[in-house]
Amino acid sequence: MVSPANPPRYVPIDGKPWRLAMGLRTLTEEKWIEVDGLREAELEQKRDLLRTARSTVVATLPHSLAAQEELEALVAKNLSEFHPRVIIDGFNDPEPIVRASAVLQEDCCILEHDGNGWLLTAACVCFPSRWTLTEKIGRDLTAIHAPVPSYATLLSAPVEGFFDRLKPDQPKWRLNWTILDTSELHLPTGSAHRRKELLDDLGDLTFRVERQTLRRMENTGAVVFTIRNYTTPLSTLCRSQEVKDHLLATLQTVNHEVAAYKGWEILLRPLTEWLSRE
Ligand code: HEM
User: Fold this and answer.
1) pLDDT attached to residue 277
2) Are 135 and 128 in contact (CB under 8 A)?
3) Is the dihedral of CA 133, 138, 141, 144 positive or negative?
4) How high is the pLDDT of residue 5?
5) CA nearest ligand 1 atom 5, residue
6) CB neighbours of 34 closer than 8 A, spacing ≥ 6?
7) Are 157 and 142 a contacting pair, CB within 8 Å?
8) Mutation test of ligand 1: which of 27, 139, 148, 173 has the most ligand atoms closer than 8 Å to its C-beta?
9) Who's near 173: CB < 8 A, 6+ residues apart?
10) 22 in ligand 1 pocket by Cβ < 6 Å?
């Protein structure tokens, strides 16, 4: 398990009411991949999972091979150009998306258009945040997001339009955050396994940010979606009084449906009380 003690690299909490938003920002090739001091530990955990739980962390459809190969080449090029000091210890695997993902802290997904919509055709996701890859492979964006409250009504059409218009030279990134009762990165099941005893010390809860990138590949036209996780204990995050206040203000606006989806039902009240204390 990788559990850093420093404040997270990204703190996407502004104190505004809870809302569902695309929140896309402009990305450059230089910033596509992020490398930090946790690389060795995270890659080791990924490789263990690839050896011991491959069917949980890898799912591919046969026709995704060309897009997987294009992704592997893009990753190699990016690392050599923008992270030349990183030691690339290759991982032996028959599938290009696995070889690509095994040299990155990011998890990788590929989506391809089948004439009707964008389907997840290949993925190597070692660090899912309480979802199951086998339930998502081969599905379109709306089906993938079926458990997300209000996604179908608020985000489905804008996300679909964004994918249709995404150009290879206009990569984007966005952030997602949640609060979890574990710092474990590999969470391939739903929130049912949530522990309750941590409620005694809410500072031990984990603040988890996902940095996601989206880019269209030139040759195959497939879209690459990467997910990079940053975690920090809530006590570390809340060393900043401003962040603490913002988190409280936002959590106070979370409705029941969102709380249920996030697995925050039993947490929300004690957490807002904890955040209100000095
Ligand atoms: C612009 C693009 C996208 C937007 C705006 C978006 C938005 C979201 C949001 C708001 C959530 C809920 C997260 C939370 O509150 O904790 C979510 C969950 C999720 N997203 Fe996306 N997403 C996008 C692209 C994708 C893509 C390309 C994939 C492909 C694998 C994906 C896979 C997922 C999965 C697996 C979940 C968890 C669903 C579950 O709980 O079963 N998303 N997304």
Assistant:
1) 87
2) no
3) negative
4) 63
5) 22
6) 9, 105, 106, 211, 228
7) no
8) 148
9) 24, 25, 27, 31, 211, 212, 213, 214
10) yes
Please give the distance, rounded to the nearest whole angstrom, from the Cα atom of residue 257 to the centre of ligand 1. 16
> Distance between CA 177 and CA 52 in Å, rounded?
28
Q: How would you label 127-165 residue by residue, b for 16+ Cβ within 10 Å and e otherwise?
A: bbbbbebeebbeebbbebbeebbebeeebbeebeebbee
Give the nearest ligand 1 atom to 136 CA: 35
> Could you identify the residue written with the tokens 């690509």?
100
What is the overall mean pLDDT for the chain? 94
Which pTM value belongs to this model?
Answer: 0.95
User: How far apart, in Å, are the Cα atoms of 116 and each of 119, 140, 154, 164?
Assistant: 9, 9, 20, 11
Q: Residue 162: CB within 6 Å of ligand 1?
A: yes
What tokens does 254 get? Answer: 């979370």
Q: DSSP H helical segments within 86-176, as ranges?
A: 96-101, 141-144, 156-165
Q: Which tokens sit at 24? A: 């896309």
Tell how far the Cα of 145 is from the centroid of ligand 1, in angstroms.
Answer: 6
